[in-house]
Amino acid sequence: MNVAGKTVVITGSSSGIGAVAARQLAKQGARVCLVARREEELASVQREITSEGGQAWIYPADLTDEASLNQCAERILDAHQRVDVLVNNAAHSIRRPITEALDRLHDYQRTMNINYIAAVGLTLKLLPRMLEQGEGQVVNISTLSSQVPIPLFSAYLASKSALESFSRSLLAELGHKGIDVTVVYFPMVRTPMSSRTSIYRHMPMMNVDKAAGWIVKAVNKRPARVGSPVGTLGSLALAAMPGPVTRFTQPAFRQMDRMLKHKMSKDR
Ligand SMILES: NC(=O)c1ccc[n+]([C@@H]2O[C@H](COP(=O)([O-])OP(=O)(O)OC[C@H]3O[C@@H](n4cnc5c(N)ncnc54)[C@H](OP(=O)(O)O)[C@@H]3O)[C@@H](O)[C@H]2O)c1
Q1: Which residue intervals define the domain Ketoreductase in the entry (predicted)?
Q2: Alpha carbon distance 119, 31 (integer Å)
Q3: Could you read off the pLDDT of 194-225 as tens digits, one per residue?
């Protein structure tokens, strides 16, 4: 497979992994459509791409707003004959214990709206073009933490698990019509998203270029999953023994949190 000449729509491309993945894809000859809310940032990514000889278009949109999402999809479909790949990468993460979210149902609604509903919404809008073409690919971005259960991210992880489940249905229903579906399970990556949690300053993380390379690999090879051996082992263990695996890994996470907090306190 080759990304050259393919039209790739990538959401959340104003920052972090999405912005770098768009640049890497454009370098390999993809025509990239950049989607996010912040127009200035999108324009800056577009300038970087065109200065490197690539092709990029920007579509500022709030994907949690149905009218904005529909308008964005229509503009993309009007401007491009083909839509070869949709990368649903835009997301929001919340780190909060469930006991501190008892009066915060909106945490769950907000994460669901951007991480799941928006991704499904854009997929439904672009899918008819892919079916007309007789082929296409949807790449949905998830996290290693849905393969290995970690505490404190219930709203975020539930929304990513919903997206994974939708991905499986999409592949099961439309794989035979040329629609490939890939789920990418990132570990922690150093980006604006992970930097918002100050105790993660000392945590070893994947760098953003390598993470963006996973999206490029997904588009080039079109597998059902791109992830790490740790994630695969974690999901096997979880499927075999959900109770013990979930209970026994929690003390390790608590210990890791204590260690990171301790390292942070030494910075002060
Ligand atoms: N960083 C990590 O450690 C990590 C780990 C596992 C998985 N992931 C996943 O990797 C993906 C990229 O994350 P990142 O770390 O690169 O995050 P990031 O730098 O915070 O980027 C998030 C992107 O989503 C866009 N976005 C958020 N709300 C939006 C909305 N309502 N409408 C349109 N766009 C919206 C943001 O753009 P605007 O603000 O301009 O709208 C931004 O471009 C996400 O799916 C994330 O869940 C990240």
Answers
A1: 6-192
A2: 20
A3: 998 888 888 899 999 999 999 999 999 999 99
Atom of ligand 1 nearest to the CA of 160: 47
Short-list 218, 221, 249, CA closest to 235: 249
Look at residue 11 and give its three-state secondary structure: strand
* Best residue among 24, 193, 205, 226 to mutate for probing ligand 1, ranked by most atoms within 8 Å of CB: 193
Q: Find out whether the beta carbon of 163 lies less than 6 Å from any atom of ligand 1.
A: no
Task: Please report, as a single letter, which amino acid is at residue 55.
Answer: Q
Q: How far apart are CA 204 and CA 194, in angstroms?
A: 11
Beta bridge partners of 139: 87, 182
DSSP-derived letter for residue 206 is: B
Q: Contact, 142 vs 166, CB < 8 A?
A: no
Answer whether 33's CB lies under 8 Å from 59's CB. Answer: yes
- Alpha helices (H) along 28-65: 39-51
Determine which of 3-12, 135-144, 157-166, 199-208 has the lowest per-residue pLDDT on average: 199-208
* Ligand 1 contact via 34 beta carbon (within 6 Å): no
CATH of domain 7-267: 3.40.50.720
